[in-house]
Amino acid sequence: MPVEWLLIPFAYLLGSVSSAVIVSRTLGLPDPRQEGSKNPGATNVLRLGGKRAAILTLLGDASKGLIPLLIAKSMAVSPPLFAAIGFAAFVGHLYPVFFQFKGGKGVATALGVLLGFAWPVGLMALLTWIGVAALFRFSSLSALAAAVLAPVYVWLWLGSAELVVATLFMSTLLVYRHKGNIERLLKGEEARLGAKRL
């Protein structure tokens, strides 16, 4: 097996490391899997521990998607393998082998993957998230908007069928993982950014 194919399991295993759990334990915060929304992600850590903890979690989760792709770029892997490596990191975050396959929703890790595909694509997705969050103050709605538009951004900027397909799969899984948020948004029960979840 060519050594570059080992980047797929490496990306998955790196994705399986929970930044939210590590940051919360290091800072003495409640376990995000047990408190708040019970989602091990930056938004829940923000509610439980504040901005510093949330930023560290966000950076950690985004790095999990970005680092394997930077390595892959340095090895000049093929486009299909490049797409698979990014997707593996994302799946690792959603279904981590180290945490009984119960992970987060994948927003920050997906951002890291998009940045790895091409930084302008990641930037456009991030600006979409920020714009929707500024208007409506819902983290979930911002993530859903960015997820829906991400494949369009990849196609417009990169024109790579492999990367578009990988992004479509990521977006589909991300929307699926937000099904509870979608239900609460429709019922008017979703917590806004900055609100404490009881």
Please give the structural blueprint.
Layout: H1 7-15, H2 19-26, H3 42-49, H4 51-74, H5 79-94, H6 107-117, H7 119-136, H8 139-157, H9 161-177, H10 179-187
Helix content: over 70%
Which structural class is indicated by helix and strand composition?
mainly alpha
What's the average pLDDT? 94
- Based on the structure, what is the oligomeric state of the protein chains? single chain
- The number of domains is 1
The number of E-state strands comes to 0
Radius of gyration: 16 Å
What is the molecular shape?
A: globular
Order of helices and strands: HHHHHHHHHH
Beta-strand content bin: under 5%
Count of helical regions? 10
**Main sheet makeup:** none
Are there runs of 5+ residues with pLDDT below 50, and where? none
Distance between the termini: 51 Å
Characterize the structure shown.
This protein is mainly alpha-helical and 198 residues long. The protein has one domain. The protein is built from ten helices and no strands. Helix 5 runs antiparallel to helix 6. The model has no long low-confidence stretch (mean pLDDT 94).
